[in-house]
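Escalated from tier 1: C2E holo job.
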Amino acid sequence: MSAPLVNQAALQQAAEQRIHTGHESAPFLLALVHLRDLSRIRRLHGEETARATREAVIANLQRVLRPADCIAPTQDDEQLVLFATLRSAHEGTLRLRELYEAASLPLNIPVQEQGSPPVRACALTIAAARFPQDAGDFAALEQCAQQTLPLLRAESKAFGFPEKIDRPSASEEQERERFDFEQRLRDAITQRTPIRAYYQPKVRIRSNEATVHGFEALVRWQDGGQLVSPGKFITVAKELDLLDALAEIMLENIARDLDGLRDVYGEDIRVSYNLSAAQVTDHDFIRRQTRTIRQHDLARNLIIEITEDQYLPPESLPPSFQPGVESDHLRIAMDDFGTGFSSLAMLARINIDEIKIDRALVQDIHLKKNHQHILNAIDAIVTRLEIPHAVVEGVETYDELKYLREHVPRLDIIQGFLFGHPEPVWHWLQHPLDAQAILAKQADASSSR
Ligand code: C2E
Ligand code: MG
Ligand code: MG
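Tier 2 regenerated the structure:
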């Protein structure tokens, strides 16, 4: 039996009964579920679709509620949920997560407009207040839930709540396109198969020898007939709170592709994948990833590239990333070094296995004096801090490679179109990369110029 759907007054009465009889012995949780997308769905697809969406989400919410709980729709696209009894604060956290996951289950609400995909999901935010810790009467609890929104958002990764998004105003046409794009992306991530890892080689050059050092797994989305690069959808996936699901798909791809890569390129071939700064500081998420990594025995080949899209305090990293922790030791690379939020403090504080120097610093390096000075400084840091591996990203021309080899030979791992574009795994298995041949050919071409 699922939790009853009641009106607001009945929910309030149920809560007040508990307040008057139970106190500490009967703690409960009042949650506020705000269906943020509903107004957009109403605007784009009409009242009928919005109503059907709301009913479908409520039905999903009811699935994880218990008979003693209740749920009441209010105005403003909000639903109140009363979790009637809780044994501990931890149970409250678990139940909220369950609620959030239920609310995020895929929907299938048809729309009138031809060519538009059905509504697959409705973005939402959940806030909550606990009795008796947060407030002692119903009105105060409700207010507290409203006000804890920013607080919960600070812990947002723990609950997976998407952040509130302020978008610039758009025409109806743009809004519809954007909404359809979001629905297709959600669909793709739910189905999993349209999302695939492509692999780009990293080549190590020592004296005159070029060998394949590893591959970076880069996500691609097969959207109908089009192959979409992450630049076009990662930000949207982040806003929709889909990055964790994406990372899981990437790990599954790597688990499936690794045997082939080991066969062709050796048992120790390194494969890296990208996690955002917010993901690596979410200890719960890292625990789940670690479980998958262990399950598929990936750890000895795997590198996590941290793409720093926000400042990342070293102390916020999970213990398994801290120096000296051997169990489940996950190797990490600092991506996009030299741009964005990459910090020198991070380098000093944690064990970095690989530093990846951003293409912005490397493009036409042979012509740019200031960039050359910066690269020399990075070379010194890598040497002094004994960072095991340094990758130079985005090398496209032999002139760039030549400069790097002559002036900063310790930055000796090259990733760039010069050696290979990101390709599906079968490409690298059927046509093993002969890095040595490319190096020799490039050198010949250059000397004959
Ligand atoms: P990144 O991790 O720094 O990856 C390198 C990007 O540079 C890739 O773009 C790659 O195709 C591109 N690149 C490599 N060599 C060259 C070159 O010689 N010239 C030029 N012009 N570009 C080159 P891509 O695949 O579009 O990825 C862009 C970014 O998206 C990645 O940058 C990474 O930050 C993010 N990303 C990729 N896959 C994932 C993923 O699975 N999860 C997350 N969270 N982010 C991802
Ligand atoms: Mg990367
Ligand atoms: Mg990079």
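Residues 200, 218-219, 229-231, 234, 243, 246, 250, 273-274, 276, 305, 307, 335-336, 359, 393-396, 415-417, 422 surround C2E (ligand 1) (CB under 6 Å).
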